[in-house]
Amino acid sequence: MTLVATDSSTSTLPQSEARAEDQTQRFVLTLSCVERAGIVQALTTFLFERGFNIDEHQQFDDGLRQTLHLRSAFSGSSAYTPERLQEEFRPIADLFDMKFSFHDQTKQRILVMVSKFGHCLNDLLFRWRGGSLGGEIALVVSNHETHRAMAEAAGLPFIYLPVIPETKSDAERRLLELVDEHDIDLVVLARYMQVLSDDLCRALEGRAINIHHSFLPGFKGARPYHQAYDRGVKLVGATAHYVTAELDEGPIIEQEVIRVDHSYGPTALSTVGQDAEALALSRAVRWHCEHRVLLDRTSTVVFR
């Protein structure tokens, strides 16, 4: 057998280029401001001068509100951090009075809250384990023991946090402690059937997502799918939105609808509704984790 010496210079990438590729970091910038000439030029010049390459760019010019919303994903030297970019970009942001934020590749940490219905939790766990959720689920919190086995089978801590009127404030205080202890970025209410207090809603503003059937406000109260059946609905849907003190009135991130007909009874409508809920919620979570959702007063801009 003849041994042939190989020259390292014949590898696919020169060592210098391979090292540079290893050091490449990816960032995302999101910003909103009053629409003015020169904003995009200022941004692209800022990135060019620091050797960054723009990988993805989306913007929305809202002519009605005279505002600009923008998301740019870019890559370059790992010597930069979001904090350094934030500091160096500040003069441009001040010039245009921008609300802005830089993010790196660090995945958002998620706390999922659930009650007795487990379809949304199951879907989130499936997508998380498959790597398509966009964030990292850190733990599951519930006011029932129903889904302990599901969470623990996925290797996640399960925290039983019962809620009764006399202990609600204590339970919410403990929830905020868990958010801090586990460095949580996003709280997801995956059919968590408890109304959050105004104080908790304010504490989680912009970082808590809820899901509900889009029959609201048309079919409020108990047994919404029975109400829908009685009215002969032709569309079943769900709405994922940010949590606010106004119940189910937060800025909408995503909605899903599925067409039905007269042959669907309450049980079939409920099954279809659960599919819609799981789809809408998982999309909303992924888009939030990928920094694709920009809050705009009571609405959102979503760069899908």
From TrEMBL:
| Catalytic site | D248
Show the catalytic activity: (6R)-10-formyltetrahydrofolate + H2O = (6S)-5,6,7,8-tetrahydrofolate + formate + H(+)
The family database entries (Gene3D superfamilies) matched by this protein are listed as:
3.30.70.260, Formyl transferase, N-terminal domain
Residues in domain Formyl transferase N-terminal? 109-285
Keywords on this record? Hydrolase, One-carbon metabolism, Purine biosynthesis
Question: Mind telling me which InterPro entries this protein's record contains?
Answer: ACT-like_dom_sf, Formyl-FH4-Hydrolase_C, Formyl_transf_N, Formyl_transf_N_sf, PurU, PurU_ACT
Biological process (GO) annotations?
Answer: 'de novo' IMP biosynthetic process; one-carbon metabolic process
* Pathway annotation: Purine metabolism; IMP biosynthesis via de novo pathway; formate from 10-formyl-5,6,7,8-tetrahydrofolate: step 1/1
Family matches, as CDD domains: ACT_F4HF-DF, FMT_core_Formyl-FH4-Hydrolase_C
EC number(s) given by UniProt: 3.5.1.10
Cytoplasm as UniProt keyword: no
Where does the source fall among the domains of life?
Bacteria
User: Is the keyword Transmembrane assigned to this protein?
Assistant: no
Q: Name the Gene Ontology molecular function terms of this record.
A: formyltetrahydrofolate deformylase activity
Family to which the UniProt record says this protein belongs: Belongs to the PurU family.
What is the stated purpose of this protein? Catalyzes the hydrolysis of 10-formyltetrahydrofolate (formyl-FH4) to formate and tetrahydrofolate (FH4).
Name the chain's protein: Formyltetrahydrofolate deformylase
Q: Which organism is it from?
A: Arthrobacter agilis
